[in-house]
Every structure is written in C-alpha cells, then in structure tokens.
Design brief:
With 145 residues, the protein is of the alpha+beta class. It contains 3 helices and 7 strands. The protein is elongated, with a radius of gyration of 21 Å. Residues 26-145 form the SHSP domain.
Length: 145
C-alpha cells in the first residue's frame, strides 16, 4: 500500500486529515490513542480530544518552533492490594497511557489567546482567529523610503 504523501501547500485542515490517516502515523498509533475532533467557526477553531478519566494534570500543550500545536498526555496508574490471610502477598496492576499529536496551526490563529480546559473527559483547545483588523496589521504594505 502506498503511503499518503503530505502536501504542505494545501490548506491546514486537509493536512491534518492526511496526518491522521497517513500510514506512518497508523503504524505508530497504539490502542490508547484518543479520538480527536477539529471544528471551525467564523471566530475560532476548536480541537477536542476524547480523554475519559484524564485530568488537566495529565496533559501538556505547547506551541513548537514549527508553528504546531503539540498535545501530549501521560497517565500512570498503580494499584496495590495486600491480602492478610495466612499468606502475605502484594498484587500490583500497572496502567500506562501516553499520547502525543502535533497539529499544524493555520496562519489566522491568534496564538497569544489559545486556551484549553478539560470537562467530562474531553480536552478542548480553543484557537481564536484573528479579527479582520488584526489580519490587516499583519498583511500591511511596507513603504520603501
């Protein structure tokens, strides 16, 4: 099967879908990789990550040097049970989940206003879009003197 090639000249949303369905990514994915939704409105983008049982302490979100929103999650659980019958033993159950996904940000995201929260097992990252006035400042013509 030929892997899907990433085309960085296309707009960002199809690129995300290509990244998600790229064969290389599928090989790296594990069974605990959460589902991700990407939504767009006139004023913002939202990224939703299904993360049942996770808290805000389990997540790390940052912007990379390559203009990517990097979402990582790590959860470790350890349960100890002691049985005091005539025998003493310790039973341990380990659970470890780790996930990381990088999403290329569109040019119109106001990076200083990105926010995130976790509610009912869903991490939501809000990516506000620049207003038309803010876009005009960025795309201004430089006068030559």
């Amino acid at each position: 099967m030929t892997p899907i090639r990433k085309n960085y000249n296309q707009n960002w949303l199809p690129s995300i879908f290509n990244d998600f369905f790229d064969n290389d990514w599928m090989v790296k994915a594990n069974a605990t990789a959460p589902a991700i939704n990407v939504l767009e409105s006139d004023t913002d983008y939202k990224v939703e990550v299904a993360a049942p049982g996770m808290t805000k302490e389990d997540f790390n979100i940052h912007l990379s040097e390559d203009n990517e929103l990097v979402i990582s999650m790590e959860k470790k659980n350890e349960t100890k049970e002691e049985n005091n019958n005539n025998r003493k033993y310790l039973r341990r159950e380990f659970s470890y989940s780790k996930f990381e996904q990088a999403l290329v940000l569109p040019d119109d995201v106001e990076k200083d206003k990105i926010s995130a929260n976790v509610t009912d097992g869903v991490l939501t990252v809000d990516l506000p879009k620049r207003t038309p006035e803010e876009k005009a400042k960025i795309n201004r013509v430089i006068e030559i003197h």
